[in-house]
Batch of 3 targets.
Target 1
Amino acid sequence: MSDRKKITLPTLYEKYERGEPITMLTCYDYPTGYLQEEAGVEMILVGDSLGMTVLGYESTLPVTMDDMIRHSQAVRRGAPTAWLIGDMPYMSYQPSVETAIRSAGRFMAEASCDAVKLEGGREMADRVTGIVAAGIPCMGHLGLTPQSASSLGGFKVQGRDAARAARIVEDAKILEQAGAHSILLEMVPDRVCQWITERANIPIISLGSGPRANGQLLIFHDMFGLYPRFKPKMAKVYGNAGEVILNGLKQYVEEVQNRSFPQREHWFTIKDEEYNDLVERLEERDHLDH
Ligand code: KIV
């Protein structure tokens, strides 16, 4: 286990003040949480993208609070010192401020998260304020907000025309004033992201929004070739784990079929005297039964 000190809000803000880039990744399970902790990832998002990457849905919309809590708990067990953010799933905060506070509270109480994230700008500002007033740090999320993909016209870059870009810039200010501790900008043009970053007083994290933000986020499954349906342009592939696993699986199927697996080191034995005793006992029992 890593000997890193717990990442806290002051730790993150100190890094931000020093102008050092903040690292952030999505994560959905214990072993990956363990690896991300070992690698020194600072902010971990248990994203509702798990609906697509792990549960195989077509979108994030079917993901429930119970799904999110179960996966957040697993990640926390693997990554005890990371700044762990629970992503509020569809309809866990949209209905009302009270619903939002209750859902955010579950992430903190049941999964030991450090913060939550929700999607949306000015229309969600009162949810952010309510959550923060309840003592729960909250990250905003602007640009491509997957839970609203239907009204945004699909999974595409947001803020490419001046009017829409201006709205994102205004929304970022509104979320900051509402109390957000950081904002994720997903698939926003680089200069729009830079504009927001230079004027914000909280960390701005980029997902496909360019290098000028205070930190970067990638989706873990995109980084390692683990999502078979598509690879977004913004994702850098750091290794093809999907290919490594597939080759291993094919080899396993072949080895079981041609009996080259298992080999001597893959099974357990019983001492001769114990086995002979066993045979004797069983034969005696058989004899008594007949
Ligand atoms: O659910 C998620 O992983 C997210 C990212 C797309 C930022 O919200």
Note: The radius of gyration is 24 Å.
Target 2
Amino acid sequence: MNKISALQKARAAYSPKLPPAFANGAGVKIIEGAPTASAGDSEKIQKLFSATFGSPEIKFEAGAKAGFSAIAAGVILSGGQAPGGHNVIAGLYDGLKSLNKANKLYGFLKGPDGLVKNEYVELTGEIIDAYRNTGGFDMIGSGRTKLEKEEQFLAAYDHCKRLGITSLVIVGGDDSNTNACLLAEYYKKNNIPINVVGCPKTIDGDLKNEQIEASFGFDTACRVYSELIGNIGRDANSAKKYWHFIKLMGRSASHIALECALQTQPNITIISEEAAARNMTLKEIVEYITGIVAARAAKGMNFGVALIPEGLIEFVPEMKSLISTLNDLIAKNNAAFAALADSDDKLQFINSRLPQDLSYVFSSLPRQIQLQLCLDRDPHGNVQVSLIETEKMLAEMVSMRLSELKAGGLYNGKFSAQTHFLGYEGRCAAPSNFDADYCYSLGYTAAALLGAGKTGYMSSVRNTTKAAKHWIAGGIPITMMMNIERRHGEDKPVIRKALVELEGAPFKRLAEHRTEWAENTCYVYPGPIQYFGPTEVCDQITITLSLERA
Ligand code: FBP
């Protein structure tokens, strides 16, 4: 057996809290609401999802329902890791067993691929026990294959039929749950006896809406990053000689950067959604940061902390058009471009073909970033924005701008930057008490939905700003979260992604305080996640959640 840490051993004994609806197991009383519509484009969504559209919202209440016939279910983890995934599976397993001890749970390996290629493991009590309250997705692995084609749906059915599986749980973000909805629709429309239920996962925090209060993993990941940001802030305030530029994960939405800012009170926080709404150019962002660096220097503070969201460059309008023009340009001239061995030749090749305004933007970027924009492409020919070192780019551009100011006698400080990227440090952390409870409850809720024979639903646990004894478990029709969006030149039904709302309470809290945090040193040091101890230390929800649901 693998050696496990003392903390893991102690955490294995933790019993996650459940909503009161499950006092007697996952055999619950079902309270159905009115039929539902979709988040947008209702007519089109109804047409595309004629079999599953309009189902009512569901709430569970404790029941003593017994006599469930035995079923077999399959579970898939899809997309990026998020703390608490193992507890979703543990909750699902325990929920299924509470319905009927003979129920079976299969885990498909490496994400949707496992379902399509029939790679699986039967999850036994022994396997589940080894992973309770642990971080990571290593119990069954995850993957990013998209489950969207008919042949995949049919292959999955074939494999499920052989294993006797009549229920599937897909644990994923907005795209994976969109695909769960397509799968549920396809099976229902074609009378294929497999029910499909989704679970909201992603550290990015962008799978949430009126009905889904939070995606799991956001709480823990933000706590890990905030601990590290706090430590870095304290180092900055001790040494007083570095500016720390910290890029934070979150593919497009800036929820993580915002939550970490609220937890740690850094000097600068860039929010991509704000940059886009204000149509800010890169130069304006650099000017904003430079202004704060110079103002602090004037007060003798040649140090600071700046948070940069991972998706920023895709939200800056000029960068967005530069990236899309580069994608096309390189795709069209692929052979000639690839034949150039020398980096300077490559940059010259690109620059000479860009329209004048974009050539200006391109030339203003540090050379390393120009190269990253040209060279790092995914298999679809797109720039992989997460690999662009925005934190280094901004630090370098700010440094250049400060040199200009210094030459003009407008700045007299010292600027030395350290850069960091926080992402993988948090995705597999041991779940906080909130995520441990929330995930276990989501899994248990999924079991209850399957027990009730529901399909096309997302597992939902609400009222999470209160103690778990007040949580409300139920199901939300996935079609209710959908609208039509343009993707790769086509209109597609998708779950609406939740970006940071500039009118929302979390952003307003930042906006209200950021000048004070910029001009002074107001760092907060949250310290590491605590699992044992006083409630106010161990059982807090994120500031985002508490402000959003206040
Ligand atoms: P999901 O949306 O799948 O949960 O992934 C979130 C995320 O952690 C993003 O924050 C990040 O941009 C991305 O995954 C990185 O993924 P990968 O490690 O596969 O490149």
Note: The CA atoms of residues 81 and 427 lie 6 Å apart.
Target 3
Amino acid sequence: MTAKIIDGKMIAEELRVDIGKGVEKLVGGGGPRPGLATVLVGENPASHTYVKMKRKACADLGIDSFPHELPATASQQEVETLVKELNADPKVHGILVQLPLPAGLDEEAVLKAVSIEKDVDGFHPINIGRLAQKGREPLFVPCTPAGCLILLKKAGAKLSGAQAVVVGRSNIVGMPAALLLVKEDATVTICHSRTKDLPGVCRQADILIAAIGRAEMIKGDWIKPGAYVIDVGTNRVDDPTTKSGSRLVGDVAYNEALEVAGAITPVPGGVGPMTITLLLQNTLRSAQRVG
Ligand code: NAP
């Protein structure tokens, strides 16, 4: 079997065209121009790159972006005061606090300070709580897991009644991905570093989501023939054959998985492009709600 490759780049691009049209329609109809505020604390180079990418993506689709940078020495109160000012600013429809925050800052308290109506990352405890509850809907769903679900649906995976395995239980990917799958009526097993016989558990999966952060850990013979595999991992490994001396790989041994899976996301070009796109979609939805 050769797996179908789920082209996240193309699916994200199609979604962005729709979001761009949504922005024009909202503004053309007298509504507000959607605005995303980014809060970047400290000097983490990867965080700076991510925030830059998010600002550029906003500009491409006509979404206003309001960048805020604080030094790594910023106090808890300074960060929370900034978030509260952004909560009160009518031009801001979404607030993104780039994680991780520097050591010493209370991440949970900062995320809790974000108004749930502007929580476009979907990390506010109330939004996550609603995601976990039957019959309740969050205002926003975390972007990476939401992207995984869209990719599965676009690839034609049947979620209702499926055996799904999520490897990873982080607040930002694994756990919300599992909650979303439960909402879709899948039967979900959540795995982590203490899981016994991980290969055996993975082999049961019709749907396998890998969000571990370990290069190519999931081997081809861990995958059930025909399974849908979503690889969230982004791991940089040495590769002297490339110009930069390194390349990105996922958490799944891609070439092996290609021979067994029914469908799989590549790394890069799978889940990654969906994450920022869903952030833009959440920002548009927030502006539509008030407009
Ligand atoms: P994380 O917070 O480090 O969580 C990793 C999870 O994997 C934890 O639950 C951990 O278990 C589990 N784990 C670690 N080693 C394991 C092992 N040997 N066997 C089984 N489970 C193991 O990471 P994250 O933030 O969720 O990110 C996961 C990956 O996705 C990373 O590569 C990250 O770069 C990538 N990512 C990509 C995007 C994107 O847009 N493409 C977005 C976010 C993250 P414990 O809970 O027991 O420690």
Note: DSSP finds ten helices and eleven strands in the chain.
